[in-house]
Amino acid sequence: MPQKIISLATRGQGLYEFTGEVAAFVRASGMEEGLLTVFVRHTSCSLLIQENADPDVRTDLDGFFARLVPPSSDPSMRWVIHTAEGPDDMPAHIKAALTQVSIGIPVIGGRLALGTWQGIYLFEHRDRPHRREVVLHLGG
What we know:
By secondary structure, the chain is of the alpha+beta class. It contains three helices and eight strands; from the N terminus they run ββαββααββββ. The strands form two sheets. A five-stranded antiparallel β-sheet has the order 1-8-3-5-6, with helices on one face.
């Protein structure tokens, strides 16, 4: 079963598309049919399949999650106990808990069965840059 770990560099909070790298892995595997599992090995970022045509979608998602879960320095977040790693850390864990760390994508005819406007994104929830590891596993 083909597997690969890819490393993604982030520049802070936001959505980082990596559909091309995943598609290249699937093509190189030579498998025509199967299920690709995409798994991120961190607790303060997550994965999304989202529209990749209009960048306003990414902007609006960033804005929504910032309003939904503000930094722990915000007065509405006074209840947060875990603050040792900065005001963005516990909110990052909450955002990751609300989204997903693993995605399954069918492979049909040697290609990802994504819709026309769908892309695969790492959703970084921390303020500072990070290097994130994503595991790809293709099963038959």
